């Protein structure tokens, strides 16, 4: 019987542990997508919080999520899997971060296609950003459902979607600006779907 000991195989960029390193890989996936929370990634991938928690706590390497991220964002597979090299090639980084483009028509919000947006123009605290075309403007919107304060919001009133400037008034009331049709209401009268981050208007 041979006494020769087997030398452990060195880890290289083409040979990495297949069942560990999950936390670091998930962190890189979050960075590639531009998400600030693991919950935002769960929502995007359509997985449960428990699935995410299990992979995170067990440090399980997320092969399937890496492939999805690479296809969605164009991020370097080498970087996603090992952390080596650049997150994106120059061509990929120039093309921007893919965001869903939605459009409001006759009060109905519908998805049309994906567009690429310069990730440097998206705040780091944005969790699930998307683009909304409304009237003659494009809005960068971050998904939000909660307490509304002063700002521009993607809101729903009686089943109809719009983007409006909203002000918080004393007594817990709100003022929704809409030119001659501006009105006051209670927070329960409207549904908040997103917070507007920025606006691009095209003039004819």
> How helix-rich are the residues, as a percent range?
25-40%
Beta-strand proportion? 25-35%
Q: Secondary-structure element order, as H and E?
A: HHHHHHEEEEEEEEE
- What is the number of beta strands? 9
Q: Please give the radius of gyration in angstroms.
A: 22 Å
Please count the helical segments: 6
Q: What's the arrangement of strands in the largest beta sheet?
A: 2-1-3-4-9-5-6-7-8
Give the termini distance in whole angstroms.
85 Å
InterPro entries: Lambda_DNA-bd_dom_sf, Phage_CI_C, Phage_CI_N
Region (Disordered): 1-20
Domain Bacteriophage CI repressor C-terminal: 101-197
Pfam family, one: Phage_CI_repr
Could you provide a short overview of the structure?
Residues 25-87 form the Bacteriophage CI repressor N-terminal domain. The chain has 204 residues and is α+β, with helices and mostly antiparallel strands.
Structural notes for this entry:
By secondary structure, this protein is α+β, with helices and mostly antiparallel strands. It has 6 helices and 9 strands. The chain has a 9-stranded mixed β-sheet with strand order 2-1-3-4-9-5-6-7-8, with no helix packed on it. A hairpin with a 2-residue loop joins strand 5 (151-157) and strand 6. The radius of gyration is 22 Å and the shape is elongated. Residues 1-17 have low confidence and may be disordered.
């Amino acid at each position: 019987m041979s006494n020769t000991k087997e030398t452990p195989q060195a880890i290289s960029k083409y040979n990495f542990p297949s069942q560990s390193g999950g936390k670091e890989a998930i962190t890189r996936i979050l960075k590639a997508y531009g998400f600030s929370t693991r919950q935002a990634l769960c929502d995007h991938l359509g997985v449960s919080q428990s699935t995410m928690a299990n992979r995170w706590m067990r440090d399980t390497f997320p092969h399937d999520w890496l492939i999805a991220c690479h296809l969605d964002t164009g991020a370097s597979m080498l970087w996603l899997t090992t952390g080596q090299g650049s997150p994106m090639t120059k061509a990929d980084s120039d093309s921007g971060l893919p965001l869903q483009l939605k459009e409001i028509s006759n009060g109905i919000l519908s998805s049309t296609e994906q567009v690429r947006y310069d990730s440097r123009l998206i705040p780091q605290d944005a969790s699930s950003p998307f683009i909304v075309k409304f009237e003659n403007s494009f809005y960068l919107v971050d998904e939000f459902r909660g307490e509304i304060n002063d700002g521009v919001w993607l809101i729903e009133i009686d089943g109809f979607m719009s983007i409006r400037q909203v002000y918080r008034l004393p007594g817990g009331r709100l003022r929704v600006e809409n030119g001659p049709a501006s009105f006051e209401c209670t927070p329960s009268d409207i549904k908040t779907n997103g917070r507007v981050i920025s606006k691009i208007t095209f003039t004819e």
